[in-house]
Amino acid sequence: MKRAGLVLFLSLPLTPCAGAAPVPKGPVLEALEKGVARSFRLLKEKGDPAPYFLSYHVTESEETSLSASRGAVRRDATYRTRLLDIDVRVGGYDLDSSRRLRGGGYASNRVRPVSLPLEDDPVALEASLWLETDRRYRSAVERLQQVKADVAVKAAADDASADFSQEAPAKLVEPLPLSGVLPAGSAEKLKALSAVFEREGAVLDSEAALSVKTTRKSFASSEGASVQHGDVTWRLTPFATTRADDGMDLYRFESFTARTPEGLPDEATLRKTAESMTADLVALRAAPVLDPYTGPAVLSGKAAGVFFHEIFGHRIEGHRQKDETDGQTFTKMVGQRVLPEFLTVYDDPTQKVSGSTDLNGFYLVDDEGVAARRTTVVDKGILKGFLMSRTPVAGFAKSNGHGRGQPGMRPVGRQGNLVIEAAASVPNAKLREMLVEECRRQGKPFGLYFADISGGFTFTGRYLPQAFKVVPIMVYRVYADGRPDELVRGADLIGTPLVAFSRIVAAGDEGGIINGYCGAESGTVPVSAVAPSLLTSQIEVQKKAKSSERPPILPPPAAEVKP
Amino acid sequence: MNAPRIGAALAVAAALLSGPIAAADAPTPGRDPVLSALEAELARSVERLRLDGVERPYFISHTVTDTNVRRVEATFGAVVRSTVEKSRRLRTDVRVGSYDVDSSEFLAGRSPYERFDAFPRMLVTDDDEMAIRHEVWLATDEAYKAAAERLERKKAVLANRVEKDPVPDFSRERPFVSLAPRRAAPEPGEWPERVKRLSAIFRELPDVQESSLVLTIASVNRTFVNSEGTRVRVPSARWSIEVQASTQAEDGAPLKRVLSFHEVEPSRLPTEAVLGAAIRKMAAELSALRVAPVLESYTGPVLFADEAAPTLFADLFAPQLSGRRPPLTARPATGGAEQGSDLAGRLGRLVLPVFLGVVDDPTLASDGGRTLLGSYDVDDEGVPPGR
To answer: Which of A49, A415, B126, B242 is a good FRET partner for B18, with 20 to 30 A between their CA atoms?
Structure first.
């Protein structure tokens, strides 16, 4: 499930200089390596049964965020955390304490993270490590008993693969980034930007937010993994809402990311963006409501990116293929056609940029200490594999470096940079002509063009319909009779995955990039999706839920104050 | 139903206001943009807020809580977390109907989250009057529409129900004006360093497995206005040090001790030496608990000493005394969680041993030299308390 597709995030590992002296390990990684060695030795000697695997993962996050509304600061917050995740496993790679109990209902991936001292004080760090390790070890021992009982009592699982994959330990020590600091004058610039929305009386709530986040990760395991890396993300997000006369809430949301503050758009560009967002809102208020409709449509590259991320990407996450409560749309379809022949899909976390845009889902080592690899999931329409963490599934024994999670959540297979490539494409203008032809062929007066989509969600569980819904913001009617395109509002794109993919008929030569945050069972992780614009012969839209509120009764205060 | 129009009440308020504002405001140069914004939107709403075919509100109030919270948490001599949070929250109460029967105290039973829907709205933290007014405007509009709808549903339910002894929904109170000057957030001074040093004491105490010290400095400026003419501004501050330590008994039972100090100004907090001694004493108790015998089930006399006696009263007796009555619900079955007090209907009867009397006195600021945190000059509805 994913929320707010357009929240940008950017990862930056500082590139180690070639030929330079080796990067020194930071005090945290030093402490983790010592701690893993000591704890593992102690538990091997004294523990019965002894653990076979132990890892420490520390995520240090520092974020300053600033937001302004109507020319005034709304939020100015800074936080810094250093969270420890411990994975201690008892049993063996084939069967261990991490195995999910079957029929046990909802199993949470949440494991409480431990707050570590923010200062690099080895005594304080070590004390925290050992205490928590001991506690987790005890619960793992207890858990293994339950797992063994469960296996003995219940019918054999469909998927008899191991619990933990054997991997070569990653060794990657990069310099840790310095903390990003908002430059002087940021608040003033943000206030000025937020004041742009103030000029339009129909705007109800509005905000411009700026944040800089520095992340530093250190990982050490009993298998010998030793990883240290980090990134800095600058993010700027203007946001504005309005309400139509019939009570429908409407909004526009844009976002920009960069590795440096200079990489963000300049003030003039931002002002223009805010102005065009305001103009969009005014146009949306006046736009007609789209009635439920099925027919052909073109998804812009950005819209196609969200569409694929939600509807396809979440279904090829490895762990789902093993979970007997999951819908497992694609589990038994490896080697079979799941997409049109001209489409290839891969996920490549190691890809830093697409064109000149930084990709949000970039990383070199995943949260289980496994090196990230480009993974082809669909080759010329044929399903080839899944996005794997260290949890094997039938036929796929190894991780491909997609084990991801936020601190405090057990990592599972997740998307990084999902790329959809078309072997054959037509110019985008031609795609539009094809849409009009398709309308005529189907006898439809118009088709739809989805320019921008905010995000969406999908159900992958077995107990709910395998449906999806994505929430478009800017949708146009493209008329078969040549009338100009018409902006409409109030349409949610819905459907079921297998049908939706079988209707894709062509791809455009220009695409789009979605940089966002994706939320699922292992928490929120930064992701990207890169896709061409797509023509589909049939989509379905339903009416958007709307609030029954009317626009405010009194005019806004600003309208009543004489300057 | 005679719903007094708020216009009249406001005229009274204006008369009351003119003097005190100027005098109380003296230490803060210029006007208070929060108060000005609230008054401007209040005046506009009182005068003109009305949906066609719906009654206009008979009462509107706004509470703005400006908070600045600094927190420093230290463990084993190192700072684990250090944060400063600034926020400004708005709560708006709009009532439609009359003092006798209004839009409050009603659960339509449509959603389990209904009773939580009055989350405060986060306002801009800058002192920008127009930006504040904009959000107050939106909040008032939303609250009015919700109140009007709720009153209609409530009337429908009331029409089918016979109330035993109808009690008015809202009490009439005299407007109250008290505008203390806004206070800036205090500087933490030496305290973060002291807390860090104190947390290092646990390094010498191997029996303690986990420990933390948290310093919290909270300063709050609360502004309350209502359409009856009440205007209140109350600054307040809280300095707290909370110590937590835990370990395990030999049999594995978790053991935990907490120690806390709360004061309204830093000069009243204990010295570092006194705090250090208290922490060591607490750790010694924890060590003693590790080997203390386990109390099997017991029936018999108990002595509640020191803090145990007030805790017993505060936890078991006091909640029965609060004057909240259960809200009217559309479906009585869903009202289970909103039980009334066990003492309801026992007025004038014996509820405690004859030698005990209980009073609640918010006007008492200290007792035997110790600060009483429950003291206040005016409550959250702008009404001055009585003993």
So the answer is: B126
